User: Which sequence fits this backbone?
């Protein structure tokens, strides 16, 4: 396994940012869409089927009344193929948790009339669409920029601009929104500001390519979220260094790879790195780590 290749293709949806985004999305933005169920838990978004096919969903929430709310974001109209994929997600998640699953799909501003149901055999499958084309990102950004005194609601409205219609590019919407939130940082508590930034970054990572995302990272470098992503990036780099050293001794067991990659404590990773450089086998490393 060439771990150097992994360095060249970094995962844009960093775990820490996504967790913050999911938390804030459930607390604040679901009511914004008129969804009244009270979220009580965030559920995993990766399901592994028997044939080892990994299914990556966007957001899953458990609600107070026992349902699971499953959210997907669509920047391209996948039509029937997308609906069939969502149906698989629902079936696997429902079977695993033994609960009713309801799928909401947020369609970005480019999608106006998506396919939201289909019948196959004796069954009809449908999702609940949230069409963002009715919202114009240009108008929202211009309105916020013109206001002398902003409210928290104004900042919240910026978070969903990547999903809306408009002529301003998505990368410019994200960069402008980050700049406005940095300018108004005294309005918010640190925790809430970080969650807002995380929502915006998570959506940016969904719709931007690698070059555009690097532009966004330059803007957020000095924010709380930027510092968090920087630390996580350092941890990932140390983990990959350890795996590269261990690879010299043969194939690394999957559970050991996951354990090393999931470790975020810099001090522990440094100790493991020194150990990996000294041992003579993967078994010795596992025994001493």
Assistant:
């Amino acid at each position: 396994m060439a771990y150097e290749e992994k360095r060249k293709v970094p995962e844009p949806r960093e775990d820490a940012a996504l967790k913050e985004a999911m938390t804030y999305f459930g607390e604040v933005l679901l009511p914004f869409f008129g969804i009244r169920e009270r979220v009580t838990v965030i559920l995993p978004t990766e399901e592994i089927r028997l044939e080892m096919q990994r299914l990556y969903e966007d957001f899953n929430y458990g609600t107070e009344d026992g349902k699971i709310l499953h959210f997907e974001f669509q920047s391209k109209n996948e039509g029937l193929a997308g609906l069939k994929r969502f149906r698989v997600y629902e079936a696997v998640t429902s079977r695993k948790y033994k609960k009713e699953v309801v799928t909401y799909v947020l369609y970005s501003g480019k999608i106006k009339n998506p396919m939201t149901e289909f019948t196959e055999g004796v069954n009809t499958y449908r999702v609940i669409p949230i069409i963002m084309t009715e919202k114009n990102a240009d108008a929202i950004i211009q309105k916020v920029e013109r206001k002398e005194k902003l409210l928290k609601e104004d900042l919240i409205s910026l978070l969903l601009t990547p999903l809306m219609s408009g002529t301003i590019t998505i990368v410019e919407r994200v960069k402008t929104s980050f700049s406005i939130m940095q300018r108004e940082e005294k309005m918010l508590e640190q925790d809430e500001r970080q969650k807002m930034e995380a929502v915006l970054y998570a959506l940016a990572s969904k719709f931007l390519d690698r070059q555009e995302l690097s532009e966004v990272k330059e803007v957020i470098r000095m924010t709380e979220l930027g510092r968090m992503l920087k630390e996580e990036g350092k941890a990932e780099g140390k983990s990959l260094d350890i795996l590269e050293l261990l690879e010299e001794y043969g194939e690394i067991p999957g559970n050991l790879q996951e354990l090393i990659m999931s470790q975020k404590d810099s001090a522990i990773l440094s100790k493991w790195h020194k150990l990996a450089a000294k041992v003579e086998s993967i078994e010795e490393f596992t025994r001493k780590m």
Remarks:
- The chain is about 55% helix and 15% strand.
- Residues 230-288 form one domain.
- The chain has three domains: 33-134, 135-222, 230-288.
- Residues 224-247 form the longest helix (24 residues).
